[in-house]
Amino acid sequence: MKKSAFLTFIFACWPGAGQMYLGYTKRGFSLMTIFLLLIGLSGFLDLWIFAVLTPVIWFFAFFDAWAIRNRGVQPSYPDDDFLFFSAPDSRQDVLQFARKYHRALGIGLILLGLYVIYNNLLMPALASLIGQFSVELGWLWRLANNLPALVLSMIFILFGLHLCRGERRSDRESGEEEDL
Predict the structure, then answer these.
(1) Quick check: helix, strand or coil at residue 87?
(2) Are the beta carbons of 41 and 109 closer than 8 angstroms?
(3) Least packed by Cβ within 10 Å: which of 22, 42, 142, 171?
(4) CA-CA distance, 24 to 26, in Å (whole number)?
(5) pTM beyond 0.85
């Protein structure tokens, strides 16, 4: 049974809601989560690069909802599932993905953390020092104001370093036992 074109349009204006309205709740949840995560990261960390990706997600979600609605025309459209990992083995899929790309993820997190520190702390502090040659406590206010971003960037860096270290010895030994 086809759903209402008007309601599909209304719900499709919010990424993921159109998919949920059409019965694709896992797909809709994935799109909504990605969209809100991008908005949250771009606002909280003051990273404009994430905000640039939000229209891409919005357009994909909007036209994906219409493709699902017109599924009768396209019978090869996939069944409902999460966008990146299948539901029953999602934990295993995430672990395999993380093991396969742990160095790239680690380097990416380190770079993201360093960029956040540079963008939110270093550049404003340098601008303050260059703009004013007198001693002031403006840097202390900036530090206090950007403390959440600093803490989160440190978490990114530490997690990235952890991922770059590679597998632990016990993980390698258990993997070798399985290979035998």
Answers:
(1) coil
(2) no
(3) 171
(4) 6
(5) no
